[in-house]
Amino acid sequence: MRRETKGSLNLLGFVLQINGFLTLIPIIVAFIFNEIDALPPFLFMGFTFLALGSFLIPIYKEFEIDFISACFAIFLTYLSLSLIGSFPYLWYKDIIFPKLSLIDKLVNSLFESVSGYTTTGLTYINDYTQLPRSLIFFRSLTQWLGGINIVFLTLMLFMSPRGEGIRSLADILGFERITLSLKGLFKEVIKIYFTYTLIFFILLTFLGNIPLFESINITLAGISTGGFLPINRLDSLLNPFSYWIITATMMVGSLNFTLTSKIFGRRVGIVYLSEFYFWLIILGITSIIFLATSEAFPDKWFHLVSAATTGGFQYINIGELKDSHKSILIFLMFMGGSAFSTAGGIKILRIIIALGALKWFFEKLLLPERVITHLRIKERIIGEREVIQVFFLIIVGMLSLLIGTLIFTLYGYNLIDSLFELTSAFATTGLSSGISFMELPIPLRLILIFEMIFGRVEMIPLLIFFFLIFGLKK
């Protein structure tokens, strides 16, 4: 066993045990709605989580989580959660995915599970009335856990707060710095997440006039910018109040946790505000374009916000939009929300760093060599390593989308619709142009699964995982 993987297994065991205990919640929901037939898959899944977690935790009683083992753990944990979490879908495979082969049902079950834990929201389920309510709640719960990034939060409890590993991981996962102790930050994020979940649940239930069960699920999926629905059509629940509450839920979910924490403490950093202002400017510009060229603007604006926050809630047929409008949504999804939030995409802070780096580079070319300049984003100095990581992630992300789009077009799918679907998967958004359906060729479904995991885990942890697995790192 490589040194780098020792702590990863303990961490994996810890996260699996957390999910094992949380499986009790959909089991309780099954009892509440008298869904006795739903108990076996949840009991089996919960037992698997707990048993495997209990086996892995004591393997190495003394271990250290460094940068390499953290990256290994992130990918391994998401993969394990998705595989074990696919069992409830497999249990109902004949109801959810009728008239398909066994291999199609296996792939679709994994697709649904990955889409949940990565907070993507793409789905092959056409009729939610067929699903037991405990399974509907489980889907929303997986997105809520994925949105809070339970894997990284757990890492905070194991990694050294002053080590290089946590700083490097923080750069990759997109937040500026850790100003509290790691355990303190863990508690702060949990507190904020629970608070927002409770607030929007109350607002949707009492002001939005949405039934209790649907309100719970929409809140869990909305604050995690997940996009799973508990009903067939979201617009059947929309009224002037619920429309704006759901919109606000997605927007708040895409805010930087550090910004939210500082707002609560009345200490708002300039960098975080710049990130938020940049997002508002981009949303404003695209809104003006849509307003000038679209009918039914409120519906289109809702989906603009859904794309910009990677929230993924959808109730119009995006496949019928103009290609120019789809292109705007593609750009918004790829950009994504704030760093260190529940949103996906490249993240706004990285876009700001990339633009600032280009400006800094050209300015440096015009200055004498002896003049030393630093790249600054407001009061923050950006190091060369972080700039390289930003451009690496943007370029590799775009390359993966281009390759995936090419493969989709070889199967006969429209270019812009293919790029839209792949960007939605990569940015963990969940908006669909109509390509994602249960009879989609298996290779294309696997590509979408890869993009969802790639978008959530990000490229550097993914590469390190494969380097370790195939022995490429000595």
Walk me through this protein's architecture.
With 474 residues, the protein is mostly helical. It has a domain at 269-441. The protein has helices at 3-22, 24-32, 39-56, 67-85, 87-91, 93-96, 102-117, 133-147, 150-158, 164-173, 182-207, 212-223, 240-253, 257-264, 270-293, 297-308, 323-335, 348-366, 384-410, 415-426, 442-457, 459-469, and strands at 375-377, 380-382. The protein is globular, with a radius of gyration of 22 Å.
End-to-end C-alpha gap: 13 Å
Tell me the number of helical segments per DSSP (H or I, 4 or more residues long). 22
Provide the helix percentage: 55-70%
Strand order of the largest sheet: 1-2
The succession of helices and strands, N to C, reads HHHHHHHHHHHHHHHHHHEEHHHH
Average of the residue pLDDT scores: 84
Largest sheet: 2 strands, antiparallel
Rg over CA atoms:
22 Å
Taking pLDDT < 50 over at least 5 consecutive residues as the criterion, the unreliable ranges are 174-179
Number of distinct beta strands? 2
Give the DSSP E fraction (strand runs of 2 or more residues). under 5%
Please tell me what the overall shape is: globular
Supply the helix-strand structural class: mainly alpha
List keywords for this structure.
2 strands, 474 residues, mainly alpha
List the helices and strands and how they pair.
Layout: H1 3-22, H2 24-32, H3 39-56, H4 67-85, H5 87-91, H6 93-96, H7 102-117, H8 133-147, H9 150-158, H10 164-173, H11 182-207, H12 212-223, H13 240-253, H14 257-264, H15 270-293, H16 297-308, H17 323-335, H18 348-366, E1 375-377, E2 380-382, H19 384-410, H20 415-426, H21 442-457, H22 459-469
Antiparallel strand pairs: 1-2
Helix pairs in contact: 1-3, 1-4, 1-9, 2-3, 2-8, 4-7, 4-10, 4-22, 7-8, 7-21, 8-12, 9-11, 11-12, 11-13, 12-13, 15-16, 16-17, 17-20, 19-20, 19-21, 20-21
